[in-house]
TrEMBL record:
<dbReference type="GO" id="GO:0030245">
    <property type="term" value="P:cellulose catabolic process"/>
</dbReference>
<dbReference type="InterPro" id="IPR006584">
    <property type="entry name" value="Cellulose-bd_IV"/>
</dbReference>
<keyword id="KW-0119">Carbohydrate metabolism</keyword>
<keyword id="KW-0136">Cellulose degradation</keyword>
<dbReference type="GO" id="GO:0008422">
    <property type="term" value="F:beta-glucosidase activity"/>
</dbReference>
<dbReference type="InterPro" id="IPR005084">
    <property type="entry name" value="CBM6"/>
</dbReference>
<dbReference type="Pfam" id="PF03422">
    <property type="entry name" value="CBM_6"/>
</dbReference>
<feature type="domain" description="CBM6">
    <location>
        <begin position="459"/>
        <end position="583"/>
    </location>
</feature>
<keyword id="KW-0732">Signal</keyword>
<protein>
    <submittedName>
        <fullName>Carbohydrate-binding protein</fullName>
    </submittedName>
</protein>
<keyword id="KW-0378">Hydrolase</keyword>
<keyword id="KW-0326">Glycosidase</keyword>
<dbReference type="InterPro" id="IPR008979">
    <property type="entry name" value="Galactose-bd-like_sf"/>
</dbReference>
<dbReference type="InterPro" id="IPR050386">
    <property type="entry name" value="Glycosyl_hydrolase_5"/>
</dbReference>
<dbReference type="InterPro" id="IPR017853">
    <property type="entry name" value="GH"/>
</dbReference>
<dbReference type="GO" id="GO:0009986">
    <property type="term" value="C:cell surface"/>
</dbReference>
<comment type="similarity">
    <text>Belongs to the glycosyl hydrolase 5 (cellulase A) family.</text>
</comment>
Length: 584
């Protein structure tokens, strides 16, 4: 009897959980808001899976000929087509898996944007055996099905984004993997028809899937229709007639088979130029804007809000990121205060300013050096080894997860509370690395004068973490070449400071040793405990160079037992800082 009751309970729970997973239903536009089927406002907090289906060269540290097709061709020249194919198969299998989506949900995100490469779903027009024919490839659809299943399991919305359209949709060729020697999307009716057919096929497949959040028709079109010479990226385009026509044609094809899902459109000029495109032509449509490297004041969102109010249509920031934690916190606070959802870019790459960092390796570094024109041609075996190791390192469990980035995105926009970056228990001979200062906002957990890159708003404001290592705050961090996985803070300016929240085991007077390096004898440091000055005007001596570290001692620093915050203040800067040691 007990077993039967248990079985019935399990069946009931299964049905209950299933009904809960469908409870929110399809997203839709409702005036200026995105809502679910209950009419509840939905604020999308998501991340784009850039680099999975479509590699952009910069994500791999390749800054020369960075289109994916050229990267692949050049790898084939180095290690052959067979081994290159093995690398790409492993890359696609490893880059995004259920563990990634599970983690995103646990971190606080509620949506995923999938940048699709059309060549995983259908053949290029030049490879079709019959003109106008569409050969469908199972690979892309199967990958999308799996991703959707993972999103459904986590009750996260999946937004489909055509990132690389047939022929390529812009003159920024890396974004869409465009080959300039072939007709673009805009130069080829066949490419346009294949784009329309692909969207119809996707809509047929996913028409009854409520966890598909919407269809993002064409990512970042950037094409000069009226003045291709002087305005090649379409930022000054006044009419955008070909772009509007294609998006209307795609919408019609989708609506023939799917009247449920939101249609998301992007303007010219990397998603922001809507001249001639509006008003909307469908009653379930969303405007997507992209925002990079601009100030995060209310004025910087003014064009989005103006369009939303004028046309009574929801707005979504479909791409943003590639900056410092300070910028991330500011931007998300700006968006959410104005009820604008967002999708960050990207989840992972080789680099520190995203939630997840893919680790490089020495063999791959040699490949990058050669591809960028600055190194010797590597051996075939080393190329293969380096690329396969890189593909293995794309698995989430082999990456570096940047908790500081996630905290800046999810918690810090609306919380000024600080948290320890690591657990620091102070007792005799304990060491705290200088780079492990507290987690939180600039001016609360630490203070740095140069915190973010705002060069779109002001060309002079291209700053942030100059070292771009370990953490993504404004604090400048660089790797210590003399030690394994060791880092230190450099380029310290006068008035900057760092907080370290710690647990002191025993009350008493401690000797604090600071490991510093300087090429002058001007530096001065003060120490505060819970905001109270305990030592001031400590000389930072000339150690012989900015990479020549030595300890300076601060004796008789009184510390109470229990939790407290130690502040290291640079009264006069221009020295480097590596460690704190506590001796009783």
């Amino acid at each position: 009897m007990f077993q039967k009751l248990s079985l019935l309970l399990l069946i009931w729970l299964s049905v209950f959980c299933s009904s809960r997973s469908l409870a929110q239903g399809f997203l839709r536009a409702d005036g200026k808001k995105i809502v679910n089927e209950k009419g509840e406002n939905v604020l999308l907090r998501g991340v784009g899976l850039g680099g999975w289906m479509l590699q952009e060269g910069y994500m791999l540290k390749i800054n020369k000929e960075g289109q994916q097709y050229r990267i692949r061709e050049r790898l084939e020249e180095l290690m052959g087509a067979k081994q290159t194919g093995e690398f790409y198969d492993l890359w696609l299998a490893n880059h995004t898996r259920k563990i990634d989506i599970d983690s995103m949900k646990a971190w606080g995100f509620n949506s995923v944007r999938l940048p699709m490469h059309y060549n995983l779903y259908t053949l290029p027009v030049e490879k079709e055996s019959v003109n106008g024919q569409n050969t469908w490839l199972e690979k892309g659809f199967a990958m999308t099905d799996s991703l959707l299943a993972w999103c459904k399991a986590n009750q996260m919305y999946l937004i489909l984004d055509l990132h690389a359209a047939p022929g390529g949709q812009g003159n920024d060729v890396n974004i869409s993997d465009r080959d300039p020697s072939k007709p673009s999307l805009w130069d080829s009716e066949a490419n346009q028809q294949k784009t329309i057919a692909l969207w119809r096929k996707l809509a047929e497949r996913y028409v009854n899937e409520p966890w598909i959040g919407g269809y993002d028709l064409i990512n970042e079109p950037n094409w000069g229709f009226d003045d291709p010479v002087n305005d090649k990226n379409g930022t000054k385009e006044k009419n955008n007639a070909p772009l509007k026509k294609l998006m209307i044609d795609i919408t019609k094809a989708i609506r023939e088979v799917d009247k449920k899902h939101m249609i998301i459109i992007e303007g010219n000029g990397w998603g922001n130029n809507y001249n001639g495109i509006l008003p909307q032509w469908d009653n379930n449509m969303v405007l997507s804007f992209h925002k990079y490297w601009s100030y995060n004041d209310q004025a910087s969102a003014g064009h989005m809000i103006k369009a939303r109010d004028k046309y009574n249509i929801p707005v979504w920031v479909g791409e943003t990121g590639e900056n410092s934690n300070v910028w991330f916190t500011e931007a998300i606070r700006l968006f959410e205060t104005n009820n604008i959802g967002w999708a960050w870019w990207p989840l992972k790459k080789i680099g520190v300013n995203n939630p997840v960092e893919i680790k490089s390796n020495l063999n791959y570094d040699s490949v990058v050096g050669y591809l960028n024109g600055g190194g010797n041609k590597p051996k075939e075996s080393n190329v293969y080894s380096g690329l396969m190791e890189l593909a293995v390192h794309t698995r989430l469990e082999n990456t570096t997860i940047h908790r500081d980035v996630i905290d800046a995105m999810i918690r810090q926009p609306f919380s000024a509370e600080t948290k320890p970056f690591k657990k620091h228990i102070v007792q005799n001979r304990i060491v705290i690395n200088a780079v492990d200062y507290d987690l939180g906002r600039n001016g609360v957990a630490y203070f740095d004068k140069d915190t973010a890159d705002y060069h779109v708003s002001n060309a002079k404001h291209k700053g942030g973490n100059k070292g771009r290592m370990y953490r993504n705050d404004g604090v400048d961090i660089i790797k210590d070449p003399t030690a394994y996985e060791a880092y230190y803070i450099y380029n310290i300016e006068s008035g900057e400071w760092l907080n370290y929240t710690m647990e002191v085991k025993k009350k008493g007077n401690y000797t604090i040793k600071l490991k510093v390096a300087a090429d002058n004898d001007n530096g001065r440091i003060s120490i505060l405990s819970n905001g109270k000055l305990v030592s001031k005007d400590i000389l930072v001596p000339n150690t012989g160079g900015l990479s020549d570290f030595q300890f300076i001692e601060i004796k008789n620093v009184p510390l109470n037992a229990g939790k407290q915050t130690l502040t290291v203040l640079a009264d006069v800067g221009f020295f480097n800082f590596s460690q704190l040691q506590f001796n009783k």
